[in-house]
């Protein structure tokens, strides 16, 4: 392999890079090689401009005003909802609930859907590779309502055993909560098949799509998934916003989560009645400017051939995976077939934090730690890993810098 | 190579981290505590044997961690054994100043010299917690052993 | 009175106006007169620039990375916390919890503090002038846990009867939840005195400061209030962020609300332990860029003499109050002494929506409706009101435009 | 004055809103429904008397609201009485097109002319809900009377 990307790739990461000002700014006098995209992606100027322009042209609070700016802001906010709807392939715009992030989207399902339905002993099926955001809300239901968590293991290569998952679904299972893509292993779960099997047993499925929506082309209708959670800041969009997709029929049955303005139909001293979804779940002033930024981010992604982005990311992963084979002191964790562009590894005698510190001084930003996935760390018998995660703007040349920096770290620490 | 990195990962540090002194358990410990760095999940357990005169007769630690935290623990145990509790706490105060890049002139010159290998940490604010974990855990053990967290 | 502000005012609204690009943009070819500040304030370029600069220079996810950008972002986020701490006069920075808005800040108290402490029959004291955001979370506790809501009335001028409030606090009262400033009436409640009386009966007080922090100079230590909720977008800051101030001792006793990354100490398959406040309540990726924007907004406010801003706002209110006296068909709702710069009114034979539509075409943005305060509407026997609310950038000349537009509306509809 | 405003608040509209036709209750109503505009809190109650041939024999409404919603309700009741349910629903379809600024050519020319006073609403998208509330409530009454909400 060479540092040149194959000519077949229709996607040009260098052209895209120009949209990300921050990538051109050196750290410690060295070019920034930003490989911490799994934690958060950088934002293109199209997103930052859209937000600033909106805030300085059309801003007001939404929904309840009859004046010009309020109308403009409401239109922008609702247009953003439709942009998300199309991005996820949802049937209806009222299936799109804006939240403050991916974590809150999952908590909304826990509080609004599951909590009123849980009896002591009822089960929630989840996998050992879940992010804490898709674990702790269920632990709450264990602590507070006696729910039982049923953990499904992954194979040594990080792939999910669908049979094992199906076997874990029993008569007391109330929900399957699993990730679409593991933020540590890169594993892509066969969501459509899992949903079909869970539905055959009458159990709904919540997919944590915080990584999934970044790397896969999602169609919630085709997946038939019941809930799908995404987060703006990993999708090249702003912080402070996420989305819960929920099937209309399920959202309608859910009780509200936060109480406040906008989510009510009527409030008196004695009684309160609630608005229909999605308003029922959007209490208070929503992330208005952020909705505009999120729509701009999705538009940005769609301005490319998304399959070509995907191919580019897979190329980077393959190139990096091949590159680290030269290091016999390095063990990759997660090698599932078809996995997304996330590379976690452990290094003999080198702690992830030391490694990350040395890489950092070479300009290479990676993540070191448990990645909010402690049960998975335990599964693989590690305390932490080092993780390089690739976005559309990364290049093979950057992978080369990573590899060189790894070799240098070995020299320093080895 | 970056000078600050060379400063951080000096031979002495790497040696301490690979061959930590006082690594293990103390069966007759009078004081113990667990420390935890939530950032990386690292943990350390500290065992101390304090005699009636408040002197630290023996000390040991167990746990996994990065080079900085291991070296810091190793160096600390080396330096603290034989001191009184009050002396250990004074040393800790000086150490904290040192790794945060603050004025550490309160340290005894000999101590200052021995701790100097850790001074490089001050250029890495995100790693200060790694360097201080063992010390906080030692303090927590002396105070009765509640779980310490890197701060 | 004349359209000139008194020369004694040290604050120059025209100079400040220049910081707000949107105010210079005409609507329907007329100058924008933005008097919907109670719903949301416009944002100065200092805020928009700070956010954009941060996003294109120092952005990464916070807290768990060891790389350069992660350190920069974490520092900025924690510096924002200290800026808020100082703004509110809090004793400790860990008493400042970032939320997604004012509504969520109040819900955090309902879910994290009160829910585990409520027995059927326990009482929550609140006033009839609360915003739905400080009503519905308590209705949830009524619906779900049998709490009883005790409503304290206001006088005909909109002022609060402190004796009546004190009398409503009984042995079963678990919380007093009241607004610092009414978003409809402008009434400023005597918070310090109320807190003292509630504390004398052993009851903690939550103040809804979403309007209070905008118009008053707040010192939570001096007020001795237990919880104080604020929202970014009304403070000339971004959407998607708010703050709960809580006394350290109370926050420590609270259980978590949202579950996810960052708020845990450790997660295993069977057990989860939680981080200390404020992290315990900040699950998931927080509003990072928004924290920078909020800090910039507070810095912006503090770049002026805040007492002078307050005097300017009071001058606008007095000028407008005097101005509407000429309209014998208009009834002001809320005339409490010392009230903040919010003017609500009802007009004979003219529905608020019709009025607002006509004002809008004159470039005047006001709010029409129930202002998320239906119990208060009921109290005053109206379905809706028209509300003009003044910010630091408004001028007497704008009040004149409002008055002319009102006269014109009367001609059209009257 | 702004032309679009003059168009919106025509004499006819103001007259309808101040002196609404068919305002009140129907004691022998066969169908009733409540409508609610959550934006402003306005509500309307619609009473219909439908005979065996599905003809709307009588109609009345009660409630408070803005000039647009009151005028729309008044005009609607005036136009609908005597029509069959199917005709009323067809009229509603045309009306919705009209106030949204869409193609309303499906309307009978006479109806189109009478409804023309409401066409100005299309320039005020934020007020469309006000204009349609009575119509949605009427439809909801015909369908069995669940509470209607302005949409
Ligand atoms: C798989 C996964 N789920 C959930 C989350 C939580 O998203 P957020 O922190 O934006 O709420 C993340 C990212 O942190 C993630 O990678
Ligand atoms: C008094 C008061 N409380 C609470 C809120 C809710 O704030 P937010 O909508 O930002 O959550 C508002 C504003 O809408 C308010 O005016």
Number of helices of chain B: 6
Q: Tell me, what's the shape of chain A?
A: globular
Number of strands of chain B: 4
Q: Find the structural class of chain A using helix and strand composition.
A: alpha/beta
The profile of the biggest β sheet of chain B is: 4 strands, mixed
Tell me the CATH superfamily of the largest domain in chain A.
Type I PLP-dependent aspartate aminotransferase-like (Major domain)
**How much helix is in the residues of chain A?**
25-40%
Q: Mean of residue pLDDT of chain B?
A: 91
CATH topology of the largest domain in chain A: Aspartate Aminotransferase, domain 2
Look at the structure and give the CATH class of chain B.
Alpha Beta
What is the 3D form of chain B? globular
Mean pLDDT over all positions of chain A: 96
CATH class of the largest domain in chain A: Alpha Beta
The pair of chains with the biggest contact is:
A-C, 95 and 95 residues
Instruction: Tell me the major beta sheet of chain A.
Output: 7 strands, mixed
Overall strand count of chain A:
15
Give the ligands present.
pyridoxal-5'-phosphate
